[in-house]
Amino acid sequence: MSLVLGRYLTEAPYLVVLMKESYKIGAEGERIEHYYPEQSVGIAAGMFLCAVTAAGLVTLPSTPMGAESFIRKLLGRRENEKVYLLLPVGYPKADATVPFRDPSASHKPLADVMTVY
Question: What's 94's DSSP letter?
């Protein structure tokens, strides 16, 4: 199988592959279901994105786009593990258009953006 990857995946200095273990395989080979694997991995991905940004790095989360099985086999992972996201990580190029929020800029009052019930 030939795998074509976008430049944003191949030019990044690091490529993080976030995996989701859909179920566990017990000592006897039995299938043990995990509760809420999608939610758990989604929360972990969000925390990772925040950490990358706080470190001054950038990433562009991407789904494996039909290459999940190929990537899983390439990395020697078992059938119960699925590629959830591909995260190229690095410093932005000088001409990159990365959203930037000036930390010294003023913010809206909290009451304008939040409702307490």
Answer: T
Scored b (16 or more CB within 10 A) or e, 55-86 reads eeebbeeeebeebeeebbeeeeeeebebbbbb
pLDDT by 10s per residue, the chain, length 117: 445 567 778 888 999 999 999 899 999 989 999 889 999 999 999 999 999 989 989 898 998 888 889 999 999 999 999 999 999 999 888 887 766 667 677 778 888 888 888
Residue at 87 is within a domain: yes
d(CA 80, CA 74): 15
Number of folded domains that form the chain: 1
The 3-class secondary structure across 58-90, one letter per residue, is EECCECCCCCHHHHHHHCCCCCCEEEEEEEEEE
pTM of the model: 0.74
Classify residue 87 by burial, with Cβ atoms within 10 Å: 0-12, 13-18, 19+.
buried
Q: Which domain holds residue 67?
A: 7-113
